[in-house]
Write a structure and sequence with these properties.
Homeodomain-like_sf, mainly alpha, 49% helix, 272 residues, disordered N terminus, elongated, Arc Repressor Mutant, subunit A, DNA-binding, single chain, two-stranded antiparallel ribbon, disordered C terminus
DNA sequence: AAACCCCACAACCGCAGACGG
DNA sequence: GCCGTCTGCGGTTGTGGGGTT
């Protein structure tokens, strides 16, 4: 049993049910306040002192994927889509690494985008293949690995990635290798398939414009947000400097009558 | 209008690495 | 070096909304 499970159990014993599922506005506000006070590092501590009855992990996730100032909302721009494609081709499923090149986008967002995007691609490809040739395709039907499931549900083979097998951990690497092995009984790996998909995208990309270099990626900056978020009202980029400006920061203290977030000094906030 | 499908998004889980005692 | 604790990452699942049949 892991420490986390032990801890969960301990909490249950203490009679504190760990909350799960969607976050309420009130919880968001509470979390924002406590992150404002203690910074976005000590999640376990924040989870404890905030009285949210959430796990530290859950708090962190909520912050990183939803509440963090500067997050972009809305559809990926064409530029971002291209960048994701490029970077995935290069790094594989290193979502956090890719996300760092797209300011305002989270790894989760990119992951989700890729998942749906690639599923669509796979389906299109499958349709194209089945209509063009039912017998001579190199995507042989006796290769179970390339049998795109009729069902559009989760597909394991999307765990493959760019030209470089890159993984943060040995187990992840192992998984990738396993996937490749599983998907390659006849010398045709899932990686090849995805590379193929990537390439077709890549080709259409390069037909129209220059390919992004790494330098481009580093210099890439997203256009200004078009729709104001609550964070635009109350912090602009100041929250990014929160750690350096512990003393002078303003933090969220609720909504005013217009529904706009209110600002206050930490010492002006009373939680309960 | 109802049923169904698809997509986007939010959230959870398991695991591994980092770090401090 | 070991162990406990915590954080971060990648994979997966659940769900709500919008579009289509």
């Amino acid at each position: 049993m892991s420490w986390w499970e032990r801890r969960k159990e301990q909490k249950m014993v203490e009679g504190q049910e760990i909350r799960k599922g969607p976050w309420t506005e009130q919880e968001d506000i509470q979390l924002i306040c406590f992150v404002g006070l203690f910074g976005d590092r000590r999640w376990d501590f924040i989870a404890k002192v905030s009285g949210l009855n959430r796990t530290g992990k859950s708090c962190r996730l909520r912050w990183v994927n939803y509440l963090h100032p500067g997050l972009k909302r809305g559809k990926m721009t064409a530029q971002e889509e291209r960048l994701v494609l490029e970077l995935h081709n290069k790094w594989g499923n290193r979502w956090s690494k890719i996300a760092r090149k797209l300011p305002g986008r989270t790894d989760n967002e990119i992951k989700n985008y890729w998942r749906t995007h690639m599923r669509k691609k796979a389906q299109e490809k499958r349709r194209a293949l089945s209509s063009s040739s039912s017998s001579s395709s190199s995507y042989s039907s006796n290769n179970p690995a390339v049998e795109f499931p009729a069902d559009t549900g989760p597909v394991k083979f999307f765990d493959s990635g760019g030209s470089e097998i890159s993984a943060s951990s040995p187990s992840t690497k192992k998984k990738m290798v396993e996937n490749q092995e599983l998907g390659d009984p006849n010398g045709f790996s899932m990686d090849d398939i995805w590379k193929d998909i990537d390439l077709s995208d890549h080709e259409s990309l390069t037909m129209n414009q220059d390919v992004y270099s790494e330098e481009d990626c580093n210099n890439f900056s997203c256009p200004a947000l078009t729709s104001p978020t609550p964070w635009d009202y109350y912090c602009g980029d100041s929250m990014w400097r929160m750690e350096e400006e512990e003393e002078s920061k303003l933090i969220f203290s609720g909504y005013d009558h217009n529904g706009r977030p209110r600002l206050a000094q930490p010492n002006q906030i009373f939680f309960y």
